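To: structure subgroup
Subject: Chain for Friday's discussion

All,

I'm putting the inputs and outputs inline so they're searchable in the archive.
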Amino acid sequence: MNAPARDIEKIAHVPHEVAALLSALRLSDPDLAPLRRLSDDEWKSLLAFCDIAHLALPLAQLSMDGFPCWVVERLQTNLADNAQRFERIKDVYREAAEALHGSGVEHIVIKGFTQAPNYVASPRLRSQSDLDLFCPPGQVAAAQAALEAIGYSSAQSPRDGRADHVPALVRPGKWEWKGNPYDPEMPLGIDLHFYLWNEPAALFSVPVNGFWERRVTRAVEGLTFSALHPVDQLGYLALHILRNILRGDWIIHLVRELAVFLHAHASDDVFWAKWAEMHDASLRAFEGIAFYYARDWFGCELHLQAENAIASLHPSQLQWLNRFSSTGLENMFRQNKDAVWLHMTFLSSARERGTILKRAFFPAQISSVDSPAVQTRNKRRVQSNGNHRWLQYIAYLGARSNTYARADLSALWRGFQWWFSRHQLSPQFLLFLASSFFFNLGLSIYFFLFNLFLISNGYTERNLGLITSAMAAGSLAGAIPAGRLVQRIGLRPVLLTCFCSAIAISSMRALLLSFTAQLALAFLAGFTLSAWAVCLSPAVAQLTSEKQRPTAFSLLFAVGIGLGAVGGMAGSRLPDWFTQHHLFLHSRQPAQIVLLLSCGIVALGIWPATRLRFVRATATQRLRPALSPFLLRYLPAIFVWSLVTGSFSPLANVYFARHLHMTMHQIGNAFSISQVVQIAAVLAAPILFRRWGLITGIVSTQIAASLVLLILASISHPLAATAAYAVFCAFQWMNEPCLYSLLMNMVPSEERGGASASNSLAISTSQIIAAALAGQAFARYGYPSVLRAIALFALLAATLFWNLQKTPHRKSVPVLDDIPG
């Protein structure tokens, strides 16, 4: 059964008169009333559009009752001119075919008059500006020579590396353009094609090898020619539409012709049985994309086989079509690049995706001052205003740059929306993400600035190491109580308590500067923040499915890292800004004001946290020690890895300040750069880990982090150190979402609270040791020696995680997805 077509003219952002045309050209329930209500100015605009879009002749075949007389006369003239033009086309083809035959060149005719009678009733009812001939690649040179021998020559245009044919062959003459695209005297060019599917341009293959071997001889209006088999002709048209979708070209007339065929053959079981026999499943899926467009734009009926081709599409492609198929109509009026995301779904390697993204988002070439493109905007001629050609060229460059920038930004934003919609993350998860947004933003500013604030007040690396160790001790002490509180009172109350306590304790840390107070408050801060660490994994696990979980963790960490970049920039600049404007200082230091302000930002996360709804654990879901075979191997591995993450990262800002003597702004820039790199790494993590597996991916990133630490130990230039630190952070954070996913996936749902608490205990214990030793080690032995030692611990952690592969994998455990509220 056919799915109902969408009211595409209401979904697409196109001019009113074009929407009226779409409504009239529908094959199911066409409506000509909107056309009959158009004003003369709207008709002029519509006819100009139809000439470019090759829709004037389909429009002329509608019932023209109620059209203005001048419109009817204009369309009837177009029909008469095009009928005479077809006689010229026949003569041109016969002459070209004879020349090719005389040179022993085999060819088939594609497109053009071959569309009759299945896609258009008569070749006289289809506009055609050139002949499209396909020859096997080895015969193209001979074919070109044969046509040049009868007067054709290659057009003087730059070779397009993505073209399916050689530069157009034209026969010089005295004909001049008079504004009539159906002029019977207008000469025809010849395009010699050497690809039925251009794999080097598309970067993915389509199985069209059998098309040439299955060619047939056909006759149309007394013209005999070789052409594609009818089944392959359908396939070629569908692939031609797909090609033009990916290139952002106009496809509306091609989709209309395809819709006519599909509608007329919706009950032709014999044809579709042959189609299913001749085209394998992968080819049928590519064709299904064009079938979707035909049904969506023109409301055609589909045979069950065509419906199945659409249904067999990858879910990401179907989601793209549901969201973006109408942008192929909008592209005729304002440039968009939404098709790049569809293209991504066909590619398997990062290199190929990078090539397509570069091609989409950066212009391949800039037209010269004398190029015809300077006078053209979206296939429409721009009238000259009499300005000097260089002024016109500058105006063209400005308009082109503006169009490119707007299209790039729109494509990035809409691509993110599509990516987000694919994963169907729940509104409750989005609330949790919003809450964590303010929590991470405030604390990113706070922790970037806090150690530098203490250094400016007389603290040393040794003092900072002890304070960091006290905070880790607090995390260790708070892990089990936080887990028990989650069990007793639920996730939301613990999260709210964490917010309020973190705000109060962090504010006191900014105000009370004695070393004793700082040690005590650091312990309490760690105790409080351990609740966030304990709650994070079970909260995400409960708000997502197992399939969504790596993406959810990646998004959560990517947002957190991105906010770290903002925090670094803000933390490095706000103190100077307060100083310059003498705001709120009085007896307070500028950095102190910023620290208190960051606590206020954390407070903004309380509101979304109050709206979270979690399923309460049952009485049987006790928090108990997690001693499964997996955790007995996992906890030592995470303990050693935490020695790496807990030793250098907390003191990285001090490393930049003391060891490399960088300024506050330079340190802020270094941290922001590292955060941007981390965002890309974390968002790419699901792709990496899907390809390599969780454990292999984790081990690979840890080995890479070890190597970068060794490089960092030998660097003394600030810029090089910034780059190396950014790469180290990328590998360090890249595996964080996967560590959490691995832990949550490998334990039953009723044990996740206990496993999360055990994980926090192991990390906190490790970081107590790392922080206490790192500060003293850096002060005594210097940064290079200690960084080399940390690199060795990273290699040891990788070895321990590699051994996790020997642990039997548990069966998937159902996740609590039914979240009330």
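Points worth raising on Friday:
The chain has 34 helices and nine strands.
Residues 619-626, 809-821 have pLDDT under 50 and may be disordered.

D.
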